[in-house]
Amino acid sequence: MERSGNRNPDRDPRTETDEVRTGGAVSADTAATAFSDLANDRHLLGRTSTAELVAGILRGRIAEGLLPPGTRLAEEAIGAALAVSRNTLREAFRLLTHERLLVHELNRGVFVRTLTAHDVTEIYRVRRVVECAAVRHPVEDPSEALSHARQAVSDGEKAASEGRWDAVGTANIRFHKALASLAGSDRVDEFMDGILAELRLVFHVMANPRVFHEPYLSQNRELVDLLDAGDFEQASRKLAAYLDVAEAELVGAYAGVLERDERK
Questions:
Q1: pTM for this predicted structure
Q2: What domains does the chain contain, in order, with CATH numbers?
């Protein structure tokens, strides 16, 4: 885990290359499959293939766990899959680098960023502010957001019953996206898309996804039940405690990885 006293305040976390490594290098075959599958999302670009739309597709793939930390983003493969120009793709990369999802390494290319324990602390600080406030003071008619939250909980439970723990992680991301959408703000939704994509990169530090995700399935169900009952204040308090525990688990996992790396 990082020690704040040793941290350089002038250091830009978007260009860090000494992050805690959460696993081995992503294989070329795995990356190639992920890039070729992007062709399935080409229809999302419509007739105006803008960098923002390309960035949105890649951000979504990161949030779904399909582009893990350390994946090198091959311009030729992604550009061909989405049928976009190199300039458009590079602008999309720039946008995602600004969001701290990608990092450019000199003479090596663009990679999905590996986050640090400091990132975890920052992400959870933001989530407490945004998600807890949205849950405590939802829009007048929260029915659509609650419907998405219930569906995400059901999807997570179904994936768990089938042993698909990566899919449980994806359902969890969608659940928290639905909670944030209780604010009824397009700006909040767009902001949280980036935060939750970063969160998905954090999940990769957990060696055993089942051990991490399984306890939160019942807690997500309890939160939905409280929201359905209109007990927004209690739901907000429960969510805050939930986020405290999750942050501690993830920071502890990063500390464990760092300790193992130092022993090598």
A1: 0.78
A2: 24-112 (1.10.10.10), 117-263 (1.20.120.530)
